[in-house]
Amino acid sequence: MSKDWKTRTKLVHEGIRRSQYGEVSEAIFLTQGFVYDSAEQAAQRFEKAGDDEFIYARYGNPTVRMFEERIAALEGAEDAFATASGMAAVNAALTSMLRAGDHVVSARALFGSCLYILEEVLTRYGVEVTFVDGTDLDQWRAAVRPGTKAVFLESMSNPTLEVIDLPAVAEIAHGVGAKVVVDNVFSTPVFSRALELGADVVVYSATKHIDGQGRALGGVVLGTREYIRKTLEPYLKHTGGAMSPFTAWLMLKGLETLDLRVRAQAAGALAIAGALEGHPKLGRVLYPGLASHPQHALAMRQLEKGGTVVAFEVQGGQDAAFRFLNALRIVVISNNLGDAKSIITHPTTTTHQRLTDDQRAALGITPGLVRLSVGIEDAEDLIADLMQALEQA
After folding, report:
1. Inter-residue contact 151 to 181 (CB < 8 Å)
2. Is 163 helix (H, G, I), strand (E, B) or coil?
3. Which of these, 299, 291, 270, lies nearest to 163 by C-alpha position?
4. Sheet of strand 103-107, all strands in order from the earlier edge strand to the far edge
């Protein structure tokens, strides 16, 4: 396919594999295995499968491969491997490259399940993990050492929307030979340039903006062809975290409208953040697109937009936050994000519930903090809904 195509064209046409029937919409190949013309062909394919040859759905599938090629073209990656969920992608991206005795440095501000993998899973098998304040470059410099295998971070953190200086962290990591693994969900594939800015491996929960309509779980890991095929693929082939063909078809359909949806969501998020800032019933309003955000200038350099999520603190703590959430009429209460529908959650009691009070306090997750994922509804309607709910908080 053409590398000169713009984003929206890639999102509709990259990776297409048409059968002999010439279908317009991508075909769903619902099969777990494939038939060979001869025993010799089977033996040859197991020894070295070609680019358009498949063995078993856990290894690869034509529909899944279309999704992988399309998202790789969007991200500017050499290759990609699709997984059963976003957390399967995070786990595989890290575990496939690590072994007992290795050292990892990670930003402290992470989604709860990412923290679990780093704090519980990796350390259980002998990997040493050091946590730092991701926005403090001196802490990164002090934590890495010769032999550090990888650094891990969310390019925009969940839920307090800290933005990390990716080129600077990448320079520090590469100085000691470490790989940079980035969870890029909040930055979105539309606004991100993570590989260009120094990341070696990029991870997405496709459940979020890529599907964008609350239908299916999925994930994807992107990087060099050597990493994807020689490090990641063997791990996923044998541990079974592959994406289903039907899910891949849904993700392909989601990609077609991804750019349109995410840009509309980001525009809505900026309007909402501006309307909320300074409200007498709110404390902090966190949105990288606002000039008041601590990393606003950095966010504009790295992403150009502030993303699709706004976080804000309802004064009065958890009780007031719950009254606010329960009074909403359009915005729904759920723990997903990146959906066409606007979704709000209370991190202290949901996504970051397993953390201790001290851990949440260190991350700025207070009892009054709520996280709003802005959908594609009319921004004026959403603002009116938020304002009437605040009156009841």
Report:
1. yes
2. strand
3. 299
4. 79-83, 219-223, 201-205, 179-183, 148-154, 103-107, 128-132
Peptide bond connecting 167 to the previous residue in cis, omega within 30 degrees of 0:
no
Q: Over the range 236-267, which residues count as b (16 or more CB within 10 Å of their CB) and which as e?
A: bbeeebbbbbebbbbbbbbbbbbbebbbbbbb
Which pLDDT band, with edges at 50, 70 and 90, does 1 fall under?
Answer: low
pLDDT at 50: 85
Beta strands in 84-133 (DSSP E): 103-107, 128-132
Q: What is the pLDDT of residues 115-148, one digit of tens each?
A: 999 999 999 999 999 999 999 999 999 999 999 9
The answer to whether residues 50 and 65 touch, using CB atoms and an 8 Å cutoff, is no
List the one residue out of 260, 271, 270, 387 whose CA is nearest residue 331: 387
End-to-end CA distance of the chain: 53
pLDDT at 83: 98
Residue 251 in this model has a pLDDT that exceeds 80: yes
Given the structure tokens 């491969």, which residue do they identify? 65
HSE on the CB side for 95, CA within 13 Å? Answer: 23
Confidence band (pLDDT; 50, 70, 90) for 356? confident
190 CB-near residues (< 8 Å, 6+ apart): 7, 209, 258, 259, 262, 263
Q: pLDDT digit string (tens) for 181-228?
A: 999 999 999 999 999 999 999 999 999 999 999 999 999 999 999 999
Domain coordinates in residue numbering, the chain:
7-254, 258-391
Residue-by-residue DSSP string for 282-299: EEEEE-TTSTTSTTHHHH
Q: What is the CATH number of domain 7-254?
A: 3.40.640.10
Kindly report the CATH class assigned to 258-391.
alpha beta
